[in-house]
Specification:
The protein has 10 helices and 14 strands. By secondary structure, it is α/β, with parallel strands linked by helices.
Length: 340
């Protein structure tokens, strides 16, 4: 599994990372044994980058990831988590209390805690301390500001400077922001000294909004980009009517475009999932992709698709059929540096 470092740091990440939202019971429950089997299989496949967050199942994901990583040698993996949502114990009474569930936030887990937005400097410190407690670890390698869309002033004015201080103190190795949009991430790249940004859903076979400003800015500034949401929440994994795009029902025109991609991949002896996983790596700013998997079987399938060959002729035909613009970089066109 190819390994690169983030930005100008010495923090390594594997080209394929383990996104741990799903083992926080995203949409449907995952048993402990299933979660640990998925993590074990990822490790055996060479994956050494694991991403989690307090938001994922109100701490369930962090606890599971931490319990797993405590069985691995310190320094043999890279762990990222996020700040911006503090977890407060839920009131026993009322909607969303300890007796309720977390389905309003997309997680099939008891709502033992409520999320409180906090991008203050003190909130950042407390969030990291709380995460370390749930993880049971003494260090977090990468910290992202998590979804600061509606909190820009506090995120840039308080949270980001605190991350800079934590990096200078050696508490964390790399800092950045993670969002489902490209616009504010571009501002982070241009106006701050982040090492990495996590861009979900905005650089895929169906959505290349990150290409116009974010990725060129990251290349210019030497900032790494981790791409999440390569399947756009499902449509590029299994295109059909009723499939989801960005967690909502996909429009018929998008389904039709995804089906064209699927037919193209099959003509070239590969799969749509393999093409979707390979595509982001064609841009020189992209350091790796994060994929959420909830079982050992899903991990094995993802690794197989990620390592499958996607013929160069597929990308050329995609341009010929106007599935990709002529200026979109594709795998095989970037100059690769030696593996770390």
């Amino acid at each position: 599994m190819r390994t690169r470092t983030l930005g100008r740091t010495d923090v390594p990440v594997t080209a394929l990372g383990f996104g741990a939202a799903v083992i926080g019971n995203l949409f449907t429950p995952v048993r402990d044994d299933e979660a640990y089997a998925a993590l074990d299989t990822a490790w055996d496949a060479g994956i050494r980058y694991f991403d989690t967050a307090p938001h994922y199942g109100v701490g369930v994901s962090e606890r599971r990831v931490g319990e797993f990583l405590r069985t691995r040698p310190t320094g043999s993996y890279t762990l990222s988590t996020k700040v911006g949502r503090l977890l407060e114990p839920a009131d026993d009474g009322g909607a969303g209390g300890a007796g309720g569930d977390d389905s309003a936030h997309g997680f099939a887990t008891p709502a033992t805690h409520r999320r409180v937005w906090d991008f203050s400097a003190a909130g950042v410190r407390r969030s990291i301390e709380d995460s370390l407690g749930r993880l049971g670890l003494d260090r977090i390698d990468v910290v992202y500001l998590h979804d600061p869309d509606d909190h820009a002033e506090q995120a840039f004015g308080e949270a980001y400077p605190e991350l800079e201080r934590l990096r200078a103190e050696g508490v964390v190795g790399a800092i950045g922001a993670g969002m489902n949009q490209a616009g504010m991430l571009t501002r982070f790249v241009r106006d701050t000294d982040v090492d990495v940004v996590l861009c979900a859903g905005r650089y895929s076979l169906l959505d290349q909004r990150a290409l116009s400003r974010l990725l060129p800015a990251a290349t210019e500034r030497g900032v790494s980009v981790i791409v999440g949401g390569v399947f756009n929440s499902g449509l590029l994994a299994d295109p059909k009517q009723g499939a989801t795009f960005d967690y909502g029902r996909a429009a018929p025109a998008l389904v039709e475009r995804a089906l064209k991609w699927q037919a193209l991949a099959e003509r070239h002896g590969t799969t749509l999932r393999a093409a979707a996983l390979a595509f982001p790596g064609g841009h020189p700013a992209v350091t790796g992709v994060l994929v959420g998997t909830r079982s050992a079987a899903e991990v094995s399938d993802t690794v197989a698709q990620f390592t499958a060959e996607v013929p160069a002729a597929l990308w050329q035909e995609a341009r010929d059929k106007n599935l990709l613009a002529a200026d979109v970089p594709t795998p095989g066109t970037r100059e690769e540096e030696p593996s770390a």
